[in-house]
Amino acid sequence: MKQKLIATALFIIAIFPLNAQTAMDALRYSRLETGGTARFMALNGAFGALGADFSTLSTNPAGIGLYKTSEFTITPSVYAGGTESVFNGTTGEEARVNFNLGNAGMIFTKDMTGRNDKNGWKYAQFGVGLNRLNDFNNRVNLRGFNPESSILDVYTQYANDHHLTYPEIEEDRFYEYAYDLNPAWWTYLLDTDPDDTTQFTNPVLVPGSNTNLNINRWGSMNEWVFTFGGNYNDVLYIGASLGIPYIRYFEEYSYSESLESDDNDLRRFHIDRELETKGTGFNVKFGLIARPLNWLRIGGAIHSPTYYSNMKDRNIVRFESRFATPDQDGNTSYSRSNSWSYDYEMTTPFRAMGSIAFVIGPYGLLSGEYEYVDYSMAKMHNLPWVNDDIRQGYTATHNFKAGTEWRYNIFSFRAGYAYYDSPYQEGVNDAAINSFSGGLGLRFPGYFIDFTYVHSSHSEDYYLYAYGPYEARAQQDVRKQRFMLTLGTKF
User: Fold this and answer.
1) Would you tell me how many other CB atoms lie within 10 Å of the CB of residue 89?
2) Tell me, what's the pLDDT at 5?
């Protein structure tokens, strides 16, 4: 029973978000599937003990310490995200494809051995560039017949449970009820009871509607990294990064219900919402790699929480309704639009990771990595009700990655697997991610080419709404595919 209450608390915020900031936003910007170069992704990110790849500047910055030459890499990428949704036995499927830059960066290496042979520091490095942390590109089409309830029942129940008055709703166009109750009121989807004006009602007299939801998401998280590192006697490698991640997230939400019963004067209604989120943050990362034996490498890294001081949401909401019977002015259709912006601060969780790699001479390698992240530690500053939902709904996770590479002549053959633990508390939801990857590399004097394919997927419940006795839930299967090509040159 407790877990059901937590689930309801977590997902009701999708219906009644204050200025649209929710626990789901905190998770979206905290849960990373770090990308970067094709070689890094071919091993599914299990690179913490290997190093000598630009992507490690965003995971274990000690990886920069293994560079002995300077290098430039760039990674054009194709990303495809798709979702299959099943709602009351009806299946809807959509996908979105975009072209992006997975990585672009330079490593500058300084040979220190010529200055003092007794100095154990052999090389010093500096790296600067961009790594991709997350892709938000996806589309959702969810449709089906709902015989039990309407989202308007949720609005009505919420208004009555919280003892709201109609002036509170009617006059609130830019704050607490601007997202839902205010436009519902002005389009006659929410009204006071004629027999008791302290109570609210809605025009759905007989439940049963064809429900349709379309969501179009796009955008990304990328991180500028500035990293210093060093190589001590080819035994110890250290590194530190300043990360400046930036968020660009866009969402178009379109929800409609067409009512079946002629006993309802309301024929259909439509809800459109647009969200644009932008923000820039900073973090610091520290890492080391030890090579006690030629064939063994052990790595570790910690990431400070990322602090975003300038998060900004821009919201547009439009409700439309159509009735069978004209009003006294002859109108059967009504519409209402609200728009507003909101600035806030956000902190995403601390991260820690440990890794190990076995290097089998010039022939190949095996690598593994563990990552710890506690999503319940994310925080929306000055939004305590959202932070309560974060603490109740999310939990600590344990992520695992493994990869291998084998070389023959100029060719390298690679494969990897990653498991990202579900961020939800037990009984709330499940969204564990499984990711598989494979790739091919070509090495030439002075330059290299890598190609990688990555497929990841997870399943989770999606709530169209959930409050009190009313719930509309769908099952979603989400899949992501990446095609990556890295071009690199050494100098």
Assistant:
1) 7
2) 38
- For residues 41, 242, 306, 139, the Cα torsion angle rounded to the nearest 10 degrees is -40
- Give tens-digit pLDDT for 256-294: 999 988 889 999 999 999 999 999 999 999 999 999 999
pTM for this prediction: 0.89
**What gap in Å lies between CA 464 and CA 4, rounded to an integer?**
16
Cα 318 from chain centre: 26
Strands 306-323 and 470-490: unpaired
**Which is nearest to 349 in space by CA: 328, 374, 324, 326?**
374
Q: Please tell me the predicted confidence (pLDDT) of residue 430.
A: 81
- Contacts of residue 371, defined as CB under 8 A and 6 or more positions apart, other chains included, come to 351, 352, 353, 398, 399, 400, 401
Two tokens, residue 425: 């508390």
Amino acid at the residue 415: A
In degrees rounded to 5, what are phi and psi of residue 89?
85, -5
Determine the Cα–Cα distance for residues 321 and 331; give it in Å rounded to an integer.
Answer: 11
Indicate the SS3 state at residue 477. Answer: strand
Query: How far apart (Å, rounded) are the C-alpha atoms in residues 172 and 396?
Result: 38
Contact 482/71 with Cβ under 8 angstroms? no
* Helix intervals (H) in 56-197: 151-161, 166-170, 181-186
pLDDT tens, 359-408?
A: 999 999 999 999 999 999 999 998 888 899 899 989 999 999 999 999 99
Sign of CA dihedral 149, 153, 155, 157: negative
Q: Where along the chain do its domains lie?
A: 2-490
Low-confidence residues in the chain, pLDDT < 50 = 1-19
CB-count burial class (<10 Å; 0-12, 13-18, 19+) for 141: middle
Cβ–Cβ contacts within 10 Å for residue 484, how many? 28
Interatomic CA distance for residues 278 and 136, integer angstroms: 13
Q: How far apart are CA 129 and CA 127, in angstroms?
A: 7
What φ, ψ does residue 18 adopt, rounded to 5°?
-75, 115
Q: For position 20, what pLDDT does the model report?
A: 57
List the one residue out of 437, 474, 480 whose CA is nearest residue 458: 480
- CB-CB contact of 230 with 286 (8 Å): no
Please state which CATH number belongs to domain 2-490: 2.40.160.60
Within 10 Å of residue 328's Cβ, how many Cβ atoms? Answer: 5
CA distance 274 to 256: 15
- In whole angstroms, give the CA distance from residue 191 to residue 202: 6
**C-alpha closest to that of 346 among 262, 246, 446, 486:** 246
Cα separation, 326 vs 329, whole angstroms: 7
**DSSP-derived 3-state class of residue 340:** strand
- The answer to whether the beta carbons of residues 285 and 61 sit under 8 Å apart is yes
C-alpha distances in Å from residue 467, one per residue of 142, 220, 270, 487: 20, 31, 20, 51
